[in-house]
Amino acid sequence: MAKTERGYQPQAGFLQQKLNSLQEFNRAEMPQFTLHEYQPLLDSSDMSPQHWTDIAADILANYEKYDGFVVLHGTDTMAYTASALSFMLQDLGKPVIVTGSQIPLAEMRSDGHENLLNALYIAAFHPLAEVGLFFNHTLLRGNRASKVHATGFGAFASPNCAPLLKAGINIEMIEPAIAELHSRLPEFQPLQDKAVAVLTLYPGMDMGLAQYIISQPLDGLIIQTFGAGNAPQQLTLLNALADAHKRGVVVVNHTQCTHGGVNMGGYAGGHALRDCGLVSAGDMTLEATLTKLHTLLSRPGEREQVIREARRLMEVSLCGELS
């Protein structure tokens, strides 16, 4: 990002120029790295599933040339990209670390120097065979991270999973990796153009509005519910959800709470949603729930089989693995 009259905007060639001027990135102890810059550069608010597919495809195309990969990304949708890459690159055997900064690298107090420096160093010398998100001295599991702070350096948290490591004076491993390092090409799951919507419930909501959204030609729908996965027991809502299930929409119950997860067996409101065919997002973040649903719906096969497997696999793993 470079400063302009309209605020910070991505500028082609700026990062390479900045890195060339920073001595710490050219020290003998640093791993060798290649900078690949996309054209055009995007603000992360403009990211889409197609861009996630492009990044994953580039990693796969260069998989044998490098020991690890660092993805530089804007913070606004960074957790979505980290989650998507974790689901798209199954059986990953090398580190993929997503990182960025709250203050752009061009500014004097930028946290980007330290985040990028540590991400490169960890990818080379403390590698984990999965997708991680590095920020503020902490490596989080990619599909467990969520942006929680708009202005603080501790912008990301992993509310229901311990960090993978902490980078202080020493680098401390905390959570074991999902898989072992290996050099085999990972299974690649490209994303298709699927219609997935998120509907957030709130007290006093017009259920006619909810009914209208649910009735759209969707492939997947995430309902942001209350508490442990509860919703108003109003027939307009319940009938609309049951009808969506019959149409083949994969409807997922995701709690609005940051910590904990969905338990549709605890209260009558949750039972009613289960009876309508909703499946549970467990304790996944919204970012992981959305990107996992996109990935499952993009799998090849007959429509009925894809729907059946998507409903089953949404509830399979708390770590967000598809297999």
From TrEMBL:
Cross-referenced Pfam families: Asparaginase, Asparaginase_C
Known EC number: 3.5.1.1
Keywords, comma-separated and alphabetical: Hydrolase
Active site: T75
Domain Asparaginase/glutaminase C-terminal: 196-306
Residue intervals of the L-asparaginase N-terminal domain: 17-175
Taxonomy, superkingdom: Bacteria
Principal EC category: hydrolase
PANTHER family named in the record: 60 KDA LYSOPHOSPHOLIPASE, L-ASPARAGINASE
Protein name: asparaginase
